[in-house]
Amino acid sequence: MVSETVQVSCVTNGGDKNNQGFKRKHLGSDENTTTCCHDEMSDDKGDIGTSGRDTTTYINDDTQPDGVSVSRKRTRLPKELTFQDMYNNQDAFDDDDEDDSDWEPVQKHVEILKWFCTNCTMVNLDDVVHCDICGEHKESGILKHGFYASPCSPELDLIQVESEARERDKDLRFEASASNCSTAVGFDERMLLHSEVEMKSHPHPERPDRLRAIAASLTAAGIFPGKCYPITAREITQEELQRVHSLEHIETVELTSQILSSYFTPDTYANKHSAHAARLAAGLCADLASGIFSGRVRNGFALVRPPGHHAGVTQAMGFCLHNNAAVAALAAQAAGAKKVLIVDWDVHHGNGTQEIFEQNKSVLYISLHRHEGGKFYPGTGAAYEVGTKGAEGYCVNIPWSRGGVGDNDYIFAFQHVVLPIASKFSPDFTIISAGFDAARGDPLGCCDVTPAGYAQMTHMLSTLSGGKLLVILEGGYNLRSISSSATAVIKVLLGESSGYEPENIVPSKSGLHTVLEVLKIQMKYWPTLSSSSEKLQSQWGMYSMENKKKQVKKRRLFEPPLWWRWGRKQLLYHILTGHFHLK
Length: 583
Known about the structure:
This protein is α/β, with parallel strands linked by helices and 583 residues long.
């Protein structure tokens, strides 16, 4: 939780110094709230402008706000004034004889306190205990206990929560070592030093707490440390980075280490530790890739930041500095892998990864993301973007046309597009650019994928490459969603079941339409997709016919008389019976 004080100016004219303003709730606004405070003059007994002995009110203004005394005639008026009284005593209200041109209001400041939700970073007023957006408690324990902590109360049986989490996993707990552990995790606390120096209207969504929440969840579950083998971090070398990025880009990122605070784009920040953190993240990903491919470990999870899939050959953008997935892919190839598959399920298209490999037939890039006709950030990733210069078909984009996409659409796309193409490609090594911002509750992605959905997609991809799979953290900005999803994915890497039943998956209408669009484009390069496309086309036709029948049934709720068919109401008869349609 982050607290902040908002100074609100209240204009008073010699009013009571203890006068307080009121708090105004303003969700989703970055502007300060201004409140006007009105004077309330009172004596010790709480009476306003009256004396206990007099039954009349004196209007007397002997002192101006600037302290200059002015002699004025005292006019005695009845306590209860009527309009006639006011008319007959206009002199008592006439201030024309005074010169108030130099009068200035006294500025008073009322503090309006607000706090930012630890879980989703949204702003709340100080007197609100639970976040209005995600429901997380003001004093959330998610950074200490991960998603196992109660969202309702900071002190609600936290010890019991942690012990229950360990109890669930006690059958699989053992001390990690290189000989008995099949899953490696790359993490280094120095990556937490990468942060925005000066907070703007609210905390930046790509913040160190993302790693803290995941690490706390893994600790509470007894997974890491415990079941997973830790990888020692090292900084990536300039030579390794130059396989992916231009020298100018590398030097630009390094330059930020000499500056307290800098920005590559309005939303992509850096401080003096950012370049170091980016080198550590890329180095961990490279070492995990080579370690997995060489067989030292079976699979791995790179718990790293800053993320990378938006970083292109020459530019940093979208919170990303170096492209970690691209570095890992080339490290795997350096270790002997001939063909590498990258599946990017971050809600945003990985434009940087696509740019780096769009002319490379040895790397197949598949991305599932919100697109909405190019209106969703970064605007790239349309279905017709398939690769260039002889590598057509090695870039596969599955662009969702709306938000709210959930498990069924993702699993359906995996079944009919991702796995058929990936199986035909037959990769030696598989990388997941695992952004969890399509998760339910994420404030940026606004989709509906559950931890079970992510676990099932991980399980489906683990059948490729002989199980040689590296998962690299990308986006994800709701701490509860990102930590629960990452934990579910790592459990699958450890050999647990996903708990998801993928049979009889029914996609949404828009999801089905997107999959059909992708199949129509990609079957030119992957002919094995034609049979799946024909099957789905028939299902799509049946789906359309069912909708048409429902619409006709609704129109037939009112059956017109039969004689309307031949009379002057012939046209209306045909409209109501569905034989004629108005456009």
